Amino acid sequence: MAVQEGIDIFSSVPLYVMPKFGESKLSDATGFLWFKNGQHWLITNWHVVSGRHPETEKCLHSQAGVPDRLTVFFQNIDLQLDPIEVDVSLFDEETPTWSEHPDHGRKVDLAAIKIDVPHMSEANYCAINAIKSMDLRQRVGDRCYILGFPFGRQGYGFPVWKGGTFASEPYLSKITNEPILVDSASRPGVWLSCDPAGIWAIGMGRWNDRPCSEWAWRQSIGRNLCGSVAH
Description:
Number of strands: 15
Structural class: mainly beta
CATH superfamily of the largest domain: Trypsin-like serine proteases
Strand content: 25-35%
Radius of gyration: 17 Å
CATH topology of the largest domain: Thrombin, subunit H
Order of helices and strands: EEEEHEEEEEEEEHEEEH
Shape: globular
Number of domains: 2
Largest sheet: 8 strands, antiparallel
């Protein structure tokens, strides 16, 4: 974990991801790191690595482009310098290099892929499960924030924070494995917390029925999904 002084720790979690075919950029995307058993994994959406809709499997690109690699941008520890780019191949010959959920596959719209990260003395980043947080109770109507790159990488490369509120009962996701819905005027390119792995939601929670400040939702389905996929 390497976090820039003065920068909110959660701003160091999202990574700008550029899906490519050869040298051609196909879209903008967001991912984050999960650290397990001495290995960093890049967590992003299944539709990002496949270039296809997770339900219909139709190509998302207007010209049917499908990515063969991802370029992941790590913020240089010196903000005045260019970011450090790490290329991740999506195929070994014709075999996908990413992992999907072992039970639900692409229906979860989540993928994990091994990545070699820059040395912590060179880049500003933080794996989401390296951040300690309390087990807090989330309720419908609670405020949250969605972090990502809806306009691509801009400025110094830190994510946009977009506010929202929980629009469905968070507790039910533990029982039904259904997505948690968030009411927010969001757009493509951010890690939408209506996705089952919506661990980007950062906001107000309750601990022992008392209001509590910042929390990171790393419990319930979000943590279970990441732990299952990044194996």
